Amino acid sequence: MQYNYLVVGAGLYGAVFAHEAKKAGKSVLVIDKRPNIAGNVYTEEIEGINVHKYGAHIFHTNNKKVWDYVTKFAEFNRFTNSPVANYKGELYSLPFNMYTFNKMWGVVTPEEAAEKIAQQREEITSEPKNLEEQAISLVGRDIYEKLIKGYTEKQWGRDCKELPSFIIKRLPVRLTFDNNYFNALYQGIPVGGYTQMVANMLEDIEVRLGVDYFDNKAEYDSLAEKVVYTGPIDAYFDFRLGTLEYRSVKFENEILDQPNFQGNAAVNYTDRETPWTRIIEHKWFEFGKDKNGNDIPKTVISREYSSEWKPGDEPYYPVNDEKNSTLYAEYKKLAEQENNIIFGGRLGEYKYYDMDAVIDAALAKAEEELS
Ligand code: UDP
């Protein structure tokens, strides 16, 4: 055996695990089918702007251990995410806070806002069973109709009544004028881009890009004592129990010859009719400046279109509804019967992980494995 570990996938889970294994004196080979490292946090510089090629990633965490860890590999700027919602030309502040309530209802005090929400949630009389009920119970029907329903149905391609309530609990609801999207103590974007951060994690580790594990699985397996697999768990088992559903995202990127398109990194289009879910204007993740601190005359925007995953597409979001969770549990049983393989990350564990949780999980697994 040439290596102690073969890591399949050079995204965050794989990079963190590989880094830890190498640090513990193990030999590691990382492979990825893409021509680049960093998985879906991959950033590419275009016109002096770090473009988040696989969707916007804003690092945020309350986990000091994870924050101390990532800041070893990158310096983080002070970016705070405050998306704007555009509902048929009306603009609202996100997440749901006093600015949102003021615009929606004209209420001025937190007490008035709380009263309005209390009235509107009266229609929900028992424990919310799905995303729709959960949303109305959190913020009332008006906000549900204008800021949640259309966006969520575009994003997930499913009715809000068929979606699990935890998805909407990701968003804070605040009776203060605080439009920070995340309840996180630590937040920011790595200066120099995520790709550089992941490259720093993978320093001195052998990485082979543009190679598909499944093209030569037996050969790759024979190279290492153990495999860390971060691809889709159902693909690993050749979809033998059926396919898990994922949402995919397609991006329409444009370079515009103007300095400021929308004045914010993220604008969500929350009506049902606009075909895209959001537009990202990447330069605002770094305050419109290039790496030398100069203003950038152009801008790069990405319209995001959500679609049901089909073979050949990139999987982005696991659909953690009942049907898929049940099927995943069956795959997990198969995974537990395998020897010398670790399944990790958003695809390997079929879990709607944020970046910090992925890093935490990879660190925990590495600790368990390497101690
Ligand atoms: N959401 C919404 N309206 C918005 C933004 C989000 O209804 O303007 C809902 C939607 O269901 C989405 C979920 O909140 O899937 C979680 O949003 P988040 O921004 O955390 O999703 P991500 O950035 O991971 O796509």
Explained architecture:
- The protein has 371 residues and is of the alpha/beta class.
- Helix content is 32%, strand content 21%.
- It has a seven-stranded mixed beta sheet. A five-stranded parallel beta sheet has the order 9-2-1-10-16, covered by helices on one side. It has a two-stranded antiparallel sheet with strand order 3-4.
- The protein is globular and about 70 Å long.
- The structure holds uridine-5'-diphosphate.
- Uridine-5'-diphosphate is lined by residues 85, 94, 147-148, 151-152, 155, 167-168, 170-171, 268, 270.
Q: Would you identify the regions where 5 or more consecutive residues have pLDDT less than 50?
A: none
Bound molecules: uridine-5'-diphosphate
Alpha-carbon distance between the termini? Answer: 21 Å
Provide the gyration radius in Å: 22 Å
Instruction: Sum up the overall morphology in one term.
Output: globular
Estimate percent helicity.
25-40%
- What value does the average pLDDT take? 97
What is the strand arrangement across the widest sheet? 7-6-12-13-14-11-15
**How much strand content do the residues show?**
15-25%
Largest sheet: 7 strands, mixed
Notable traits:
371 residues, alpha/beta, seven-stranded mixed β-sheet, five-stranded parallel β-sheet, binds uridine-5'-diphosphate
Helix and strand layout, with pairings?
Blueprint: E1 3-8, H1 12-23, E2 28-32, E3 43-46, E4 49-52, E5 59-61, H2 64-70, E6 84-87, E7 90-93, H3 98-105, H4 110-121, H5 131-139, H6 141-156, E8 186-188, H7 194-201, E9 206-209, H8 217-221, E10 224-229, H9 233-236, E11 246-256, E12 266-269, E13 278-281, E14 299-308, E15 317-318, H10 322-337, E16 341-343, H11 345-348, H12 355-370
Helix pairs in contact: 1-12, 4-5, 5-6
Residues 85, 94, 147-148, 151-152, 155, 167-168, 170-171, 268, 270 line the site of uridine-5'-diphosphate (UDP).
